[in-house]
Design goal:
11 strands, alpha/beta, 7-stranded parallel beta sheet, 46% helix, binds NADPH dihydro-nicotinamide-adenine-dinucleotide phosphate, 4-stranded mixed beta sheet, binds magnesium ion, globular
Length: 401
């Protein structure tokens, strides 16, 4: 067996989510190449149990201790060969197991930061979906990747597309490799053409009904506000060493062109495909080779036309807020992310309206001046402060984000 085809042993952080399910789908197609070493989630132990019964990992971990207890009892009852760990420590343990070479970071939100950072320090190949890790602590995380000898492969579809369009061996210096601009595409979400006057009344169901992608509820709301694209600008800055003015966003409602790289000679390289997360996941799992992902072929003649437009700042203020946070630097992106997580949770709970999400984020950024972030603790403190201010703004201390 050549090294490119050695069995990859994989931990999935966030196995029960949308990215987790797509990852397991790709893994199941290639049992000779990929083995599941550990599966983790927050508290949904029953879906996790089904995954454990199917993939029989040596380890599983749940953040929630009570759910972990129920899972451990069920694992024993069913005679499965899986040790059950719990708590933040359990997540970090399965992210750093010596026998694991690849960690899929697909927990939603800031909760993904600590185990992803632990995987970086342990030198793992990290397939990064959890963009919040880079938004909260970009400099700390990139330094940990380098110090730990880890390999970072983006599976966020846009960043995976850019990764595929950059020259091989690209090491984070656009000018050195003739890269003029990175172009992130954005679908525009479910409210791309909704009359602005109707947005105040938008419901969680409408916000989560994404026209192209089926994703978790939090990122679906972020797509509706375009905060997701703002977080992705920050993600691209850290992943590719690009300055803010080297990163542009273009709306592309068909979600066929997943992003583009423009070179100084005028060439623009794009990666295209049907909107299905199994493509970027398979690309990163098999990298540098390729494996089938179960994705249907792209039939351009049937699609006929592709459209592009500039994002409207009045419709999508969150995009501008994220760019401003990147310009401010330090803790500002973490503040923004924290305020957004609190506001999105409140919106999904029907505690606030859709337009309040941007208002809470803007006010949190205005109230908390940017401070330097040079450690995990700094990032977590910025996250805590951002959440506290957002909760205060919402006037509801009990928002569970
Ligand atoms: P989901 O909401 O579908 O799944 C989230 C997963 O994270 C679940 O397994 C959940 O476990 C787990 N989880 C939630 N909170 C915690 C916690 N505190 N500790 C440990 N595990 C936790 O999210 P998605 O799969 O949609 O998104 C995951 C990440 O990938 C996000 O960062 C998102 O931005 C990113 N991403 C997603 C894309 C998509 O297409 N879905 C595209 C690009 C990026 P449980 O089931 O127990 O709650
Ligand atoms: Mg994306």
């Amino acid at each position: 067996m050549s090294s490119a085809q050695a069995l990859r042993r994989i931990t999935i952080l966030g196995a029960t989510g949308s990215i987790g399910a797509s990852t397991l789908d790709v893994i199941a197609r290639h049992p000779q190449r990929f083995a599941v070493a550990a599966l983790c989630a927050n508290r949904q132990w029953q879906p996790l149990l089904e995954q454990i019964a199917r993939f029989r990992p040596a380890y599983t971990a749940l953040l929630d201790a009570q759910a972990a207890g129920e899972l451990a009892a069920a694992v024993r009852r069913e005679g499965l060969p899986t040790s059950v760990l719990c708590g933040p420590q359990g997540l970090c343990e399965v992210a750093t197991l010596p026998e694991v070479d690849t960690v899929v970071a697909a927990i939603v939100g800031a909760a993904g930061l600590a185990p992803t950072l632990a995987a970086a320090r342990a030198g793992k190949t990290i397939l990064l979906a959890n963009k919040e890790t880079l938004v909260l602590s970009g400099s700390v995380f990139i330094a940990a990747v380098s110090a730990g000898g880890a390999t970072l492969l983006p599976i966020d579809s846009e960043h995976n597309a850019i990764f595929q369009c950059l020259p091989p061996g690209y090491a984070g210096s656009p000018e050195e490799r003739g890269v003029r601009r990175i172009l992130l595409t954005a679908s525009g979400g479910p409210f791309r053409v909704t009359p602005l006057s109707a947005l105040a009344r938008a419901t969680p169901e409408e916000a989560c009904a994404h026209p192209r992608w089926r994703m978790g509820r939090k990122i679906s709301v972020d797509s509706a506000t375009m905060m997701n694209k703002g977080l992705e600008v920050i993600e691209a800055h850290w992943l590719f060493g690009a300055r803010r003015e080297q990163i542009d966003v273009v709306i592309h409602p068909e979600s066929i062109v997943h992003s583009l790289v423009e070179y100084v000679d005028g060439s623009v390289l794009a990666q295209l495909g049907n909107p299905d997360m199994r493509t970027p996941i398979a690309q990163a799992l098999a990298w540098p080779s390729r494996v089938a992902a179960g994705v249907s072929p792209l039939e351009l003649a049937q699609i006929g036309a592709l459209h592009f437009a500039a994002p409207d700042p009045a419709r999508f203020p969150c995009l501008g807020l994220a760019c401003a946070a990147l310009d401010a630097g330090g803790s500002a992106p973490a503040t923004l992310n924290a305020a957004n997580e609190v506001a999105v949770a409140a919106f999904l709970d029907r505690g606030i309206g859709f337009l309040d999400i941007a208002a809470v984020c803007a006010e949190a950024l205005a109230r908390l001046p940017a401070r330097p972030v040079s450690s995990l603790d700094d990032a977590l403190e910025a996250d805590r402060a951002g959440r506290a201010v957002a909760r205060e703004l919402l006037g509801r201390q009990a928002v569970s984000a």
